[in-house]
């Protein structure tokens, strides 16, 4: 309809700069639970007893049992047409950056170019070292990280898990291995934040495409308004009508797996940019 036609013509603006903000709704069609909608993780668990360094410090086994389930689900899931459409659009637009809040690895598995996406909340296939909370309540770690680690940890799926059963950091031998995802209260990677901030500062016609996020968690929740403030436009794709909340110029209501390929179609005709 008219909405799609006007979006498609804006997509063809010369030198358009695109920032995509990605949330759990992008992976819903791949069968992965979101956080706050029906069946969402935070409907079944209290985030503060699971997704914080304090929670891990208090009961690492309980937290690992939650992340072990999510790791298995994510590694068994398949990218859906929206992951592929975003990956193909990224290959065809010179100035394209995705800020993904998702840790499920599906954008990577859809072939999304690594230099055109930032995984701002980490990845479930990453493990890192947790030495505990220092006096300032900051997590200490030796800096060890393991990427692409997808096999199960030797932790039972239920029952109390004694601390000694949690695998130790192979580097410092004192820290515990933890999921390589950002928890509430933890800071995001500085250089990732700087890269997105730099992207926002550069002038020129721009578009913020918000896909499948409830806009509850910062800094990702602020990007659409930042683009709008600098004269850019905002498009929202969500199963609910979230357009008004984001001050969107276009609000596409539906399953991302169906809507995203449709709205990005004009970009697919372009050659890949090297
Ligand atoms: N297609 C499009 N959007 C969908 C679909 C779908 N099939 N299914 C659900 N949605 C939308 C919901 O309407 C909601 O707006 O996706 C959004 C999911 O919101 P949340 O569950 O809050 O997930 P998200 O916004 O990604 O959470 C952000 O919160 O817990 C932290 O770190 C975690 O990265 C996560 C962050």
From TrEMBL:
Residues 1-270 form the Deacetylase sirtuin-type domain. Zn(2+) binds at residues 129, 142, 169, 172. It comes from the Eukaryota. It holds the Pfam family SIR2. Coiled coil: none annotated. GO terms for cellular component: nucleus. The active site is at residue 121. Keywords: Metal-binding, NAD, Transferase, Zinc. SUPFAM superfamilies: DHS-like NAD/FAD-binding domain (SSF52467). One of its GO terms (molecular function) is metal ion binding. PROSITE patterns: SIRTUIN. InterPro entries: DHS-like_NAD/FAD-binding_dom (IPR029035), NAD-dep_sirtuin_deacylases (IPR050134), Sirtuin (IPR003000), Sirtuin_cat_small_dom_sf (IPR026591), Ssirtuin_cat_dom (IPR026590). Belongs to the sirtuin family. Class I subfamily. This is DHS-like NAD/FAD-binding domain-containing protein. It comes from Ascobolus immersus RN42.
């Amino acid at each position: 309809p008219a909405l799609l036609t006007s979006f498609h013509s804006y997509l063809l603006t010369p030198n358009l700069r695109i920032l995509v903000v990605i949330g759990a709704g992008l992976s819903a069609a791949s069968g992965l639970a979101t956080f706050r909608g029906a069946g969402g993780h935070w409907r079944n668990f209290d985030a503060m007893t699971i997704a914080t360094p304090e929670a891990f410090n208090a009961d690492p086994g309980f937290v690992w049992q939650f992340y072990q389930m999510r790791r298995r689900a994510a590694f068994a899931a398949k990218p859906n047409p929206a992951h592929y459409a975003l990956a193909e659009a990224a290959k065809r637009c010179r100035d394209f950056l995705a800020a993904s809040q998702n840790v499920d690895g599906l954008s990577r598995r859809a072939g999304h170019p690594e230099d055109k996406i930032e995984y701002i909340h980490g990845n479930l296939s990453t493990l890192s070292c947790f030495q505990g909370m220092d006096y300032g309540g900051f997590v200490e770690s030796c800096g060890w990280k393991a990427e692409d680690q997808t096999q199960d940890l030797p932790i039972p799926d239920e029952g109390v898990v004694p601390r000694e059963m949690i695998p130790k950091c192979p580097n410092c031998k004192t820290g515990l291995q933890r999921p390589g995802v950002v928890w509430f209260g933890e800071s995001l990677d500085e250089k990732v934040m700087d890269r997105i901030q730099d992207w926002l500062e550069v002038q020129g016609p721009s578009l913020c495409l918000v896909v499948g996020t409830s806009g509850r968690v910062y800094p990702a929740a602020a990007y659409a308004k930042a683009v709008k403030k600098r004269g850019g436009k905002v498009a929202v794709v969500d199963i609910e009508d979230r357009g008004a909340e984001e001050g969107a110029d276009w609000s596409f209501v539906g399953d991302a797996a169906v809507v995203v390929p449709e709205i990005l179609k004009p970009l697919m005709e372009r050659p890949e940019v090297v």
